[in-house]
Amino acid sequence: MSTDNPTPIIIYEDADKTVDVRLDASQDTVWLTQRQMGTLFDTTPENVLMHLKNIFRDGELPEQATTKDFLAVQIEGKREVKRSLKHYNLDAIISVGYRVNSRRAVQFRQWATRILREHLTQGWTLNQQRFEANARELEAAMTLVRKAAKSPELDTTSGRGLVDILARYAQTFLLLQRYDEGLLTEPAAQAGGRLPSVDEAWAALAQLKGDLMARGEATDLFARDRSDGLASLLGNLDQSVFGEPAYPSVESKAAHLLYFVIKNHPFADGNKRSAAYLFVDFLHRNGRLLNQEGEPVINDVGLAALTLLVAESDPANKETMIRLIMNMLADHE
Known about the structure:
With 333 residues, this protein is of the alpha+beta class. It is 54% helix and 13% strand. The chain has 13 helices and 7 strands. InterPro entries: Fido (IPR003812), Fido-like_dom_sf (IPR036597), Type_II_TA_Toxin (IPR053737), Virulence_RhuM-like (IPR011204). This is RhuM family protein. Pfam families: Fic, Virulence_RhuM.
């Protein structure tokens, strides 16, 4: 199974047919799944599989040399799940095409040859479809910022924080428009990240609560648990899917920790302040609170504005908010 850097994705278009194609310039080939071949040749995936079995059974092509597994991210409910999908190279695609519809096979072979030549000589391709998708994500985030900026709870200082968030996010969008990543959902991230234990999280919150109560800024209801909400939340963040962490990076864990504490209301009072504190505490535990210049990755004003932005966001915009937080934390150097 391939676990290397993501293979570049290009777009094949023919009349009303649009198919994402994986390019492997190192092997002078392209890759499609069984379902994508069905779309390409106007047939069913089952029919494609039948032809592939015959091709391999007859010895026309060696199966091991013409197939490859790639990890693909699929949305299942509200979760992103990685699954291994079998792909077939250009030789297998053309062989199936000749058996299904030779005209389409010739058209695809001509297109693939031209695309491979361009990649080998130029080294890159701008994927217009992905660029437009990122532009929509940026506009969605800007809309959320503009909405939050009108909140009566937002003072002048927090307003400056929102402006700072918007400026940094726009810069992030431009910096992340790289060919090998392509999507705003995949910023450069640091794998791992140790979540606090339930006891460690409660100890941190107890310290915060004591300080706030001493200053008259909180009551005994502050950070009081509701039905083991904190333990459940931390357990969900630490879960695995098919043996892989559901939240595999420091950025992903941090973003979801902030979001879930704010939105799930695990405490009787002080959910936003508790979320911000646990967020900062997590970054500190993992050596990510400060950047290379020794400055906080998100200053206090920016964090306050970001917390309010998450609190006022529509749950339907959850993924946009997660992407925003992750990209703010990502190392863009």
